[in-house]
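Model: Ready when you are.
Researcher: Fold this.
Model:
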Amino acid sequence: MKFTPAPLAGVVLVEPAVFTDARGFFLETWRQREFAANGIQADFVQDNHSRSVRWTLRGLHFQIEHAQGKLVRVSQGAVFDAVVDLRRSSPTFGRWWAVELSEQNHRMLWVPPGLAHGVLVVSASADLLYKCTDVYSPMHERTLAWNDPQVGIRWPLPEGVQPLLSAKDAAGAAFSSVDTFP
């Protein structure tokens, strides 16, 4: 596996070795020792799987308590995966970064606790799978507005296209008023 630090502190792009032949492919998505040797200490307690149609935008989600580290990958389709650093003590506080995850590139993204996370589906549909270091806690869940001008994420939406949003995501908080981490 190849581990590449992203421009946000603690975020890592993981590119597994993919072995292909006439039957298809094989790859490892998790090996604790390998990840630990590359600075990712994670004890996963929950796995999630979502399927969404093109232009669905999920996020930007985080939990203020029971903060979750996430190892994210796409098994079908493609997404624009964005993260925003909400850790006030971080040198990259308030900055965002994004990468495409797809079934073709097999990339995975390590999102440490303390970041807001969101995806925009850029293919006809996409299946997103992610491992979490803490369980879902609805009372601690927060949403940062996907289109907050202070953060300024450049989502790859075509001219005139509005993303498909849940009511919760449509009502996300502005960066200036969202809960943050120490």
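Researcher: Now this one.
Model:
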Amino acid sequence: MIALVQRVLQARVEVAGDGVGAIDQGLLVLVCAEPADTEALARKLVNKLLKLRIFADDAGKMNRSVQDVGGGLLIVSQFTLAADTSAGNRPSFTAAADAVLGQHLYNTMLQMARDAHPHVAAGRFGADMQVHLVNDGPVTIPITVR
């Protein structure tokens, strides 16, 4: 699974002008499933997100996790993270999981996150979404779990 993690002061997702998910301080996570991904990899990614120490401690060092600071997770599906731009100028998305597997792993990941953390919001799988965020830092970290 591929994720792009952004530390945010706030973030929200809209579909057709309606708010579908929002958080204050926390992590905006754009996530993409690949064809060989499994529920075990989804769990590994959720665990990584919850423990990722990218929030400042009292000394200003990145030593706190989203759990430590009581922040939120906003998890948004984004198959374009699997883009291959090596040939030509039009990206190929064949490295992304098909919609059935992608939605299953996205929903599984959401449930795992909600079971482990009290503040989890989400986008809407397959929808044309508008994501609004205030990046904190900015801190943006790519994560791939295999």
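Researcher: Key takeaway?
Model: The longest helix spans residues 99-116.
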